[in-house]
Amino acid sequence: MSNMTRNRLLDGAFRAVGLLATLLGLLLLAVFLLDILRTGLSRLSWQFLSALPSRFPERAGIYTALLGTVWIMVLTALIAVPVGLAAGVYLEEYGRKSRWSALLEINITNLAGVPSVIYGLLGLNIFVRFLRMGSSVLAASCTLALLILPILIVATREAIRAVPKTLREASFALGATRWQTIWYQVLPASMGGILTGIILALSRAVGETAPLLVLGVLAYVPFAPKSPLDEFSALPVQIFNWISRPQQAFGINAAAAIIVLLLITFGLNGLAIFLRNRWRRHLP
Fold first, then answer.
1. pLDDT tens-digit profile of 69-109?
2. Which positions ≥6 away from 44 have C-beta within 8 Å?
3. Which residues of 75-101 are buried (b: 16+ CB within 10 A; e: fewer)?
4. Is 111 within 8 Å of 176 (Cβ atoms)?
5. Is the pLDDT of residue 1 over 60?
6. pTM for this structure?
7. pLDDT reading at 33 higher than 60
8. Percent of the chain with pLDDT strictly greater than 70
9. CA-CA distance, 12 to 40, in Å (whole number)?
10. Residue 136 forms beta bridges with which residues?
11. How many CB atoms lie within 10 A of CB 168?
12. Taxonomically, which superkingdom (predicted)?
């Protein structure tokens, strides 16, 4: 058997395995979604969305958890996005290529794969205990900001790296400074990829449960947070609490809450795809 024939056979085998794995994943996802929809769709109503938590499943709602999730998403974005964007721009445009920068880049990439519970322990020691923020919205947002910060830095660097060097050279040739080139040329050209990374990172933060449980976020909060220092609940914590209860009615509530959380996540992912495609169409 010649090398060319062997390579073709291996290529066909890899393609078949990849296609089979993709179909299997889609099938499992479809089964999961259908089961969740069949169980929880009938529970979705305005009363479910606007009601407070209750020990009676037919009265329980996700109002406080939903508002807590919104608070987390907004504060996490306000904390993590400026820092991640600035760090990515500095490392890619201003940082010198050296052993230190290479080591730093490897560590940032590795931090993106650290289990989320580790960030929860870090947030517990720094924000909850040392800075005495308690189990507040601000403590959870700072913890989740640390969680998604490596993802934002990597996404920003990759988006900036994809900008052609000729664009920078043309800007320099016209007399622009480095900062003017970055602000008026590089960032607009890479903003599609940057926005995609930001939204995908936020969608991961919204669905995290382990860091919130480690921080001591409450499952039963009879009020909605009104400031960053208030205690709160969140949809992942509420879902975890309902699933752990023996009553079947709470399982139905959990399925309905999962549908809401999936809608938020899919909405963020769809927004990322829309913004990326829209930005690419407007590029010259």
1. 999 999 999 999 999 999 989 888 887 777 777 788 888 88
2. 256, 259, 260
3. bbbebbbeebbebbbebbbeeeeeeee
4. no
5. no
6. 0.85
7. yes
8. 94
9. 42
10. 231
11. 18
12. Bacteria
Cα–Cα distance for residue pair 140/123, rounded to 1 Å:
8
C-alpha to C-alpha distance for 281 and 45, rounded to whole angstroms: 39
Give the distance, in angstroms, between the CA of residue 267 and the centroid of all CA atoms in the same chain. Answer: 12
Residue scoring higher pLDDT (147 or 32): 147
3-state secondary structure the chain: CCHHHHHHHHHHHHHHHHHHHHHHHHHHHHHHHHHHHHHHHHHCCHHHHHCCCCCCCCCCCCHHHHHHHHHHHHHHHHHHHHHHHHHHHHHHHHCCCCHHHHHHHHHHHHHCCCCHHHHHHHHHHHHHHHCCCCCEHHHHHHHHHHHHHHHHHHHHHHHHHCCCHHHHHHHHHCCCCHHHHHHHHHHHHHHHHHHHHHHHHHHHHHCCCHHHHHHCCCCCCCCCCCCCCCECCCHHHHHHHHHCCCCHHHHHHHHHHHHHHHHHHHHHHHHHHHHHHHHHHHCC
User: Tokens 């529970």, residue?
Assistant: 43
Residue 177: half-sphere exposure toward Cβ, Cα within 13 Å? 4
State how far the Cα of 191 lies from the Cα of 159, in Å rounded to an integer: 7
What does the alpha-carbon distance between residue 43 and residue 47 come to, in Å, rounded to a whole number? 9
| Residue 281, pLDDT score | 65
Amino acid in position 177: T
Do residues 232 and 140 make contact, with C-beta atoms less than 8 angstroms apart? Answer: yes
Mean pLDDT of the chain: 85
Q: For residue range 191-221, what is the model confidence (pLDDT) as tens digits?
A: 888 888 888 888 888 888 888 888 888 777 8
| Whole-number Å distance between alpha carbons of 3 and 28 | 37
Which amino acid is located at 260 in the chain? Answer: V
